[in-house]
Amino acid sequence: MKRAGVIINPRSGKSNGKGLRLVEKLSGKSSISVHVLDEFAQLAFVLKTFAYDGVTDLFISSGDGTIQAIQTELAERKPFVALPRLSLLPHGTTNMTAADLGFRHHNINAQAEFIENLAPTSLRDRPTLRIVNPRDGKPRHGMFLGAGATAEATLFCQRVINSKGVTGSWATFATLATASYRTIFTKPDPTDETRMDRPFPIAITSEGRRICDGDQLMMLSTTLYKLILGAKPFWGGNNGPIRSTVIPYPVPSVPRWLLSMMYGSERRSVPLGALSFSSRSLEITCPSNYVIDGEFFKGPENTALKVEAGPVFTYICD
C-alpha cells in the first residue's frame, strides 16, 4: 500500500511560503506523513519516522541543497528497507535538479491533490552523483558537481544575485550575463581572484584514462539530462551515467561559442581544448572549492577527489 510523506524546508526559496501553503492544504490528512524541517539536525529522525510510518513516496518541498541532504541520508544511512520514490517540488531558491526531475505541476492545489491520491503516471530513474572522499569525510549524494569557474559562479549567484531576491532561472541568467559581460568587455587578468574567468589548475582521470591536466576555466559533472535554463553542455556520446565537461583557459570566445556549447547537438562544434565525456566514475584534482547542488566543500588533501555513480532513485514527475 502506498503512503505519501512530505518534507518541507520553510527557508527554501527565501522563505517564499510555498511549502507552508502546501502544509495547510494537507492539514488533517491522517493518510499522509508531513513534517516541517525547522532544523537540519532533525532530518535523520524524520526519515526514520517516515520509514516506520510506511512511507513509499517522499515529496520534498525545497531547493537543491535540501534534496542533496535527503538523498545523502537515504543512500548512506539507509533508514528505509527499500528506497522511497522521490518527488521534487520546486519551491527553493535554486531548482536545477527539479528542472530535470521535478514534479510537473507548480500549482499548490494540484500538488496537494496529487499527494493525497498518489496515482503517478510519469516516473524517471536516475542515479545520484556520489562524492566519495571529501575532506570532511562525509560522502554526499547530489546530481551536479562543479569546480573552477562553475563553483565561483555559484558563489557569486548566492552572495550577489540571490541576496537581491532574484532566484531560479532568472538568477542563473543574471549570473551568466554578468560573467559574459566582464569576459567580453574587460581585459583578461589571470591573476585577479575576483574574476570568475580565470585559470584553475584541474586534472581529471576517468576509468584509467587521463582527460586533462593543466589550467582550465571550469569543469562540471552531472547525472541530470538537462541543467537550469534547459542547457545541455554535453556532447560526444552518452555511454555512462555521469556526463562531464571541461572548458579550457584561456576563455573561448563567448559570442562565438556560448550558445553552441550550451545547446548544441551531440556532434556540435566546440573550441579547441573543450572536452566532454561520460563514465561511471572519475577522479578530480583541483585546489579550490567544489560545489555540489549549491553546497561548497573541499577535496581531500594530497589525493584526488573520487566521484562515482550512486544508487538509482525513482522520481515521480506526474
Strand and helix layout:
Blueprint: E1 4-8, H1 12-15, H2 18-26, E2 32-36, H3 43-53, E3 57-62, H4 64-77, E4 85-90, H5 96-101, H6 108-117, E5 123-131, E6 140-142, E7 144-148, H7 149-161, H8 168-185, E8 200-206, E9 209-222, E10 242-248, H9 254-263, E11 275-279, E12 281-285, E13 290-292, E14 295-297, E15 305-316
Parallel strand pairs: 1-2, 1-3, 3-4
Antiparallel strand pairs: 5-6, 5-15, 7-9, 7-13, 8-9, 8-12, 9-10, 10-11, 12-15, 13-14
Helix pairs in contact: 2-6, 7-8
Can you describe what's shown?
The chain has 318 residues and is of the alpha+beta class. 30% of the residues lie in helices and 30% in strands. It has nine helices and 15 strands. It has helices spanning 12-15, 18-26, 43-53, 64-77, 96-101, 108-117, 149-161, 168-185, 254-263, and strands spanning 4-8, 32-36, 57-62, 85-90, 123-131, 140-142, 144-148, 200-206, 209-222, 242-248, 275-279, 281-285, 290-292, 295-297, 305-316. A hairpin with a 2-residue loop joins strand 13 (290-292) and strand 14. Helix 2 packs across helix 6 (108-117) and helix 7 crosses helix 8 (168-185). The mean pLDDT is 93.
Specify the biggest β-sheet: 11 strands, antiparallel
What structural class is derived from the secondary structure elements? alpha+beta
**What is the residue-averaged pLDDT?**
93
**Spatial shape:** globular
Low-confidence stretches: none
Can you write the helix and strand succession as a string?
EHHEHEHEHHEEEHHEEEHEEEEE
**Helix tally?**
9
Number of strands: 15
Computed Rg: 20 Å
Strand % is 25-35%
- The amount of helix comes to 25-40%
The end-to-end distance, rounded to whole angstroms, is 19 Å
